[in-house]
Write a structure and sequence with these properties.
The complex is a heterotrimer.
Chain A (H helix, E strand, L loop, with lengths): L10 E3 L6 E3 L12 H9 L5 E7 L5 H13 L5 E5 L6 H11 L15 E9 L6 E8 L2 H9 L5 H9 E9 H5 L4 H17 L11 E6 L6 H4 L1 H8 L1 H10 L3 E5 L1 E10 L5 E11 L2 H10 L5 E2 L1
Parallel strand pairs in A: 3-6, 3-7, 7-8, 8-9
Antiparallel strand pairs in A: 1-2, 4-5, 5-6, 6-12, 10-11
Helix pairs in contact in A: 2-3, 4-7, 7-10, 9-10
Chain B lengths: L2 E16 L2 E10 L4 H10 L20 E7 L5 E11 L7 E10 L1 H6 L4 H10 L22 E2 L2 E6 L8 H6 L2 H12 L4 E4 L4 H9 L12 E3 L11 E4 L6 H7 L3 E3 L11 H12 L2 H8 L8 H16 L5 H13 L4 H24 L2 H4 L3 H9 L2 H21 L1 H8 L12 H17 L6 H17 L4 H9 L11
Parallel strand pairs in B: 2-6, 8-10, 8-11, 9-10
Antiparallel strand pairs in B: 1-2, 1-5, 1-7, 3-4, 3-9, 4-5
Helix pairs in contact in B: 5-8, 8-10, 10-12, 11-12, 12-15, 14-15, 15-16, 15-17, 16-17, 17-19
Chain C lengths: L11 H9 L26 H7 L3 H6 L1 H4 L5 H15 E4 L2 E6 L10 E6 L2 E4 L5 H9 L51 H10 L7 H9 L56 E7 L2 E2 L5 E2 L5 E5 L16 E5 L7 E2 L3 E3 L10
Parallel strand pairs in C: 5-10
Antiparallel strand pairs in C: 1-4, 2-3, 4-11, 5-8, 6-7, 8-9
The chains are: A alpha/beta, B alpha/beta, C alpha+beta.
């Protein structure tokens, strides 16, 4: 993506959907991406890499991404992550605040301008001098599902995936372990959609790295023993499409909650409570994607 | 009550867990709904925590409701009613948002008086706004026997509106509501922050726009501010005061309690504002929900001027009313504008008649000349003036029969087209009969004047039997008027 | 033989740990290729000596009538007393306040529980110690398991299908983790072991007393951590300590409680004997999918520091065999009749 200067233009194209917006706009009128993100990107040497965290509704994207960003900010595994703009901290702030009160963060709304966007500069302090500018939006699972089911319902998702340097696909490991076919079917649809979106580049197998992460591993700890085998056994449709259409993929397991209990609300609905937080397998998928990113994503 | 029936498709957008999926999506729909329509409904429908909680003591969050209206890519229109339906099923806090959508053709919109709120009221009357879900076990989908909903015929009362009481009126003062209306008619998006009364004000504001323009004016009322929904009008409560900056930065005009702006000068807004300030939404609806052929700014000003003139008649002087009628009747125009002008004329005529019937001849004498000019124009002007001429002459006849007879000479000949000759001659006969009756104990001057009057009538209408009758009746006076 | 409370000679392990200063976790679990099984220990043929070698000190004392005729009895008993004095510490009597609500905000309901003095293991039970239980066929000794768990005993197996903690292989622990707390064990396994060695899991109140030291005194001091009131990641092994796995049970001597009990906070969560009972802010119960027991103290992967304090209480499914939960054992003071020359 070429970098342009906008010193005298009255409009600025959005980094994600490339639609023009006024310089005073706070969010893109089309896709809701923060304009501060775009202005930050313009100020850098290169356009940032987009790493999209995708998955079905209620699979744990918000918790995963919020914890990931907080752990990176806390220099987990020798990472150093610096937020570009205060808006980038909102997601991890919300997630950490809720989890510390033994609550799950609220559901991500489908309204695009309600999504949290994170723009971080990430590097490993000791192992390499490479620095990555990463944009990671927290999208509503229903919006992703709607776009996958009917392309162009949410064009921002298509634009994001088209521009993604890497993807982290969260799959509900708990549901899969319980025998539900739902996670497998959703993942199959998503990977097929991804295949269609990126296939225009004319590659035989798609080289975009995709980390398939089995979430809610606390429910089924066996998933940590061998995520690949687990996926092959319990998510066979996903496994097959990964093998046939993707050159760079890997399976991981993750959990954030150490133990889960259940209460009820005034409507007698079941309410889950995270009793304590013990993140596991959060950094590894991200680390893997980072190692697979294309060279032009790095800042030197 | 103006009842009409429109054909609708419907769709339910909410969050449930089912074997086919999880979360917010269209969970049931009519077969007639097109894919692009479903896409648009998915994009525009509110999701988690999108409803503004009511800000009065009587309501709880669970009672919150919202409404929306927008055009679909197919050209059909969508009216949506949103409410809460139990807790969100994943137990992450907040209430589940449930939206019933009704889709209908733009051609049916006119039958509804161009009022989307009429469609929403019809939905409510039909019981469609009660969630068709079992709230206590939201993971299931009972109540809906099938995800395929029937297309239906919705009975809409196009004449019903929700009134604006004083407290609601006060929430959006004059300058701000005019500012909103101006933005909407100029095609600019506007966001209005109010603590309550969102749907009532949505209707009042929408009814301030000419009916045919409303199909393009999408709105959301009682829903949290969202740039993504792209509504022209958003009315909501913004507890966190976060919307102002976002709206302004997106080129959306933001109006709240801190907005102060001079009310824009406009004939159209002038009469609309009058209805708002009186809480007369029904009257506003009748005036603006007409099938205007031309809704351009110039046309709106013309129409506004007509309505303003109509409303100002009681305070307008009679001679100015006649001057107004002269201008109005000179070019009545076509279609709805013609109807409005005729309504103005009717109202003006009633006003003048009322005044003239109570006035003395000396009070109305000054009106005769402009009235005569109007009468002589022919066509609608003559028809309008005719009844006033009769009223003036009858007033004159009561006070001064000779003066009445002299005045009536002006309308005795060169009678323009449009005058009912029979009733006109009856009027003249009435004047001359009264003249003939008032011939006792005349002074010398009066006798001379009478002779002159008769002579002039003879000249004006030599073969008129009415004149002959007058001469006959005055023969006993020996005025020396020869029979012809 | 008196059980000294505060003037304890420090063990060689603790001294060694101090020299190293920093610990590096080995991570869990070792992969199949890198697994180094612990060798079978050589145990005495004599049952009494064997019991001593297996660390079943309290069981020996409890079942003295069984061993009285053994010629080694007096010697073994004296050695048992010596070992217990080295391995256990006295926790004085006091009172603890147990939060009853999930949010545990000031003003929320609490239960005050008086705790009598008791003895507590200085270290968590290590892999090496638990190995004895496995080698002795502890998973087949039904007398140590509640009847409701008997149908599930066959599920309590290691990665190779042998009875044993979850992350072991062929019934053996990795020799490099011998001195690390045993993990991958359910509450039932922890309880079975503690019964086998003649002790019991500490009650939640006992555990909190050991960590908070809320003594019966006019000062009314409650410690947030065994060493004091401020978190210090150099005194414990939590997420913020950047180790990423368990460390030997004798590590972090500077994080000890006043009676030298180690790692009450951090390294591994510790099973207690108490069922987990809690409500939300509206007095509605909060329960797990299956029975839960209280775990305390935080672990190497505890992210929030406030979840690794002496007061923070949480639960775990009783059958859960997580990578970060271990246990230590307690003993009633009444059973320690050798103290003060008894």
């Amino acid at each position: 993506m070429a970098t342009a200067t906008y010193t005298r233009s009255a409009t600025m194209p959005c980094l994600i959907c490339e639609q023009k917006n006024s310089l005073e706009a706070v969010v893109c009128n089309t896709c809701g991406a923060p304009m501060a993100l775009i202005q930050e990107a313009v100020a850098q040497d290169r356009d940032p890499c987009i790493v999209t965290v995708v998955g079905d509704s209620n699979v744990g994207k918000t918790v995963y991404l919020g914890m990931l960003l907080d752990m990176l900010s806390n220099r987990a595994d020798d990472f150093e992550a610096v937020p570009k703009g205060a808006y980038s901290v909102n997601l991890q702030h919300s997630v950490v605040s809720h989890l510390s009160m033994r609550q799950f963060p609220p559901k991500t709304a489908m309204e695009v301008d309600d999504w949290h966007w994170a723009y971080y500069q990430v590097r490993r302090r000791k192992r390499t001098t490479d620095t990555y500018d990463l944009v990671m939006p927290d999208m509503a699972g229903e919006a992703i599902a709607a776009e996958v089911a009917n392309p162009k319902t949410f064009k921002v998702i298509r634009s994001l995936l088209e521009k993604s340097a890497g993807a982290i696909l969260l799959v509900d490991g708990a549901l899969a372990a319980a025998g539900s076919p739902q996670p497998d079917f959703f993942a199959l649809k998503l990977m097929s959609y991804l295949d269609g979106v990126i296939a225009t580049r004319g590659e035989k197998k798609l080289t975009t790295p995709v980390a398939v992460v089995l979430s809610k591993g606390d429910y089924c700890p066996e998933v940590f023993d061998d995520p690949r085998s687990f996926a092959q056994s319990n998510l066979n449709r996903l496994w097959n499409i990964c093998e046939s259409r993707f050159a760079n993929y890997e399976f991981f397991a993750t959990s954030v909650v150490g133990a889960l209990a259940y209460g009820s609300d005034e409507y007698d609905n079941v309410v889950p409570y995270p009793l304590h937080i013990a993140p596991r397998g959060v950094i590894e998928p991200f680390e893997w994607v980072l190692t697979k990113l294309q060279g032009d994503c790095k800042r030197r | 009550m103006t009842q009409t029936t429109i054909a609708c498709d419907q769709a339910i957008f909410t969050s449930i867990r089912s074997p086919m999926g999880e979360g917010y999506r269209i969970v049931a729909a009519s077969r007639g709904l097109k894919p692009e329509e479903k896409q648009a409904i998915t994009r525009c429908s509110p999701s988690h925590e999108a409803l503004c909680a009511p800000r009065d003591e009587s309501g709880s969050d669970a009672d919150a409701t919202g409404t929306a209206f927008y055009t679909l890519p197919s050209g059909r229109l969508c009216a949506a009613f949103t409410c809460n339906a139990g807790a969100e099923h994943t137990g992450r806090g907040g209430l589940r948002v449930y939206t019933q959508n009704v889709v209908f053709a733009e051609t049916d919109f006119a039958k509804c008086g161009y009022n989307p709120l009429a469609v929403l009221r019809a939905m409510k009357a039909a019981g469609m706004t009660a969630p068709q879900l079992c709230i206590r076990t939201p993971a299931l989908m009972p109540g809906l026997s099938s995800p395929v909903l029937p297309s239906l015929e919705l009975a809409v009362d196009a004449s019903g509106v929700q009134p604006l009481d004083g407290s609601l009126c006060a929430l959006l003062p004059r300058s701000r509501r005019c500012c909103v209306a101006r933005c909407l008619m100029d095609g600019k998006a506007v966001a209005v922050e109010l603590p309550k009364g969102w749907t009532e004000w949505a209707e009042a504001l929408v009814l301030g726009i000419p009916g045919p323009l409303r199909a393009k004016v999408s709105f959301g009322a009682g829903l949290r501010f969202s740039v993504g929904r792209g509504h022209c009008l958003q009315i909501f409560h913004d507890e966190r005061r976060a919307a102002a900056g976002r709206a302004s930065a997106q080129g959306i005009r933001f109006v709240d309690s801190e907005t102060s702006e001079d009310a824009p000068e406009s004939e159209w807004l002038s009469f609309v504002e009058r209805h708002w300030s009186q809480g007369d939404v029904h009257g506003l609806m009748r005036r603006t929900s007409r099938p205007f052929a031309d809704c351009s700014p110039e046309a709106r000003e013309r129409i506004g001027r007509l309505y303003n003139a109509t409303d100002a008649l009681p305070q307008t002087e009679s001679v100015q009313i006649l001057s107004l009628m002269t201008r109005t009747l000179a070019e009545l125009g076509q279609g709805v504008e013609r109807e409005i002008r005729l309504e103005l004329c009717d109202a003006a005529g009633c006003t003048l008649l009322d005044r003239l019937s109570k006035a003395r001849w000396n009070d109305v004498r000054a009106l005769w000349s402009p009235l005569l000019n109007l009468w002589r124009r022919g066509g609608e002007a003559t028809v309008f003036a005719q009844m006033l001429v009769a009223c003036v002459l009858r007033s004159a006849v009561k006070d001064d029969p000779q003066a009445a007879a002299e005045t009536a000479l002006d309308v005795a000949r060169d009678i323009p087209v449009g005058v009912d000759r029979v009733s006109h001659d009856g009027l003249l006969n009435e004047v001359l009969n009264r003249l003939a009756e008032a011939t006792t104990q005349l002074s010398e001057a009066s006798r001379a004047r009478l002779k002159d009057i008769i002579h002039r009538w003879q000249t004006a209408r030599p073969t008129c039997p009415i004149v002959a009758g007058l001469i006959e009746r005055c023969a006993a006076l020996q005025l020396g008027v020869a029979r012809t | 033989m008196a059980l000294k409370l505060f003037s304890r000679r420090r063990s060689n392990d603790q001294a060694a740990a101090d020299r190293h200063g920093q610990y590096e976790g080995l991570g869990l679990p070792p992969t199949f290729e890198s697994f180094q099984p612990a060798s079978l220990p050589t145990l005495d043929h004599d049952a009494l000596k064997r019991a001593f070698q297996q660390g079943r000190y309290c069981a020996i004392l409890r079942d003295q009538h069984q061993w009285k005729d053994s010629p080694q009895f007096a010697f073994v008993v004296s050695e048992v007393h010596r070992e217990l004095e080295q391995r256990m510490a006295l926790v004085p009597a006091g009172t603890v306040s147990i939060a009853q609500t999930l949010s545990a905000q000031p003003g929320d309901s609490e239960e005050d529980i008086a705790v009598e003095a008791f003895l507590l293991d200085i270290h968590c039970v290590t892999n090496a110690r638990f190995q004895h239980f496995v080698d002795a066929g502890g998973y087949d000794m039904l007398e140590h398991w509640p009847e409701e768990i008997w149908p599930h005993l066959i599920e309590l197996e290691d990665l190779t299908g042998q009875p044993g903690p979850r992350f072991w292989r062929q019934g053996r622990h990795d020799v490099r983790l011998a001195e690390h707390p045993v993990v991958g064990i359910s509450w039932y396994e922890a309880q079975a072991y503690s019964l086998w060695i003649g002790q019991h899991l500490p009650k939640e109140a006992e555990w909190q007393m050991a960590a908070s030291w809320h003594l019966h005194s006019s000062t009314n001091l409650v410690r947030r951590f065994p060493w004091g009131d401020a978190m210090n990641k150099k005194r414990c092994n939590i997420w913020g300590s950047r180790i990423g796995g368990t460390v030997p049970a004798s590590a972090f001597p500077n994080g000890a409680a006043p009676n030298h009990v180690l790692q009450l906070v951090g390294n591994v969560w510790e099973w207690t004997d108490t069922e987990y009972s809690i409500t939300d802010g509206n007095n509605r119960p909060i329960v797990g999918e299956m029975p839960m027991h209280v775990v305390r103290g935080g672990a190497f992967d505890t992210y929030f520091e406030f979840q690794a304090t002496s007061q923070f209480r949480t639960g775990q499914l009783a059958l859960a065999r997580t990578h970060n939960t271990g246990f230590r054992c307690a003993m009633n003071l009444a059973d320690a009749n050798w103290i003060n020359g008894g």
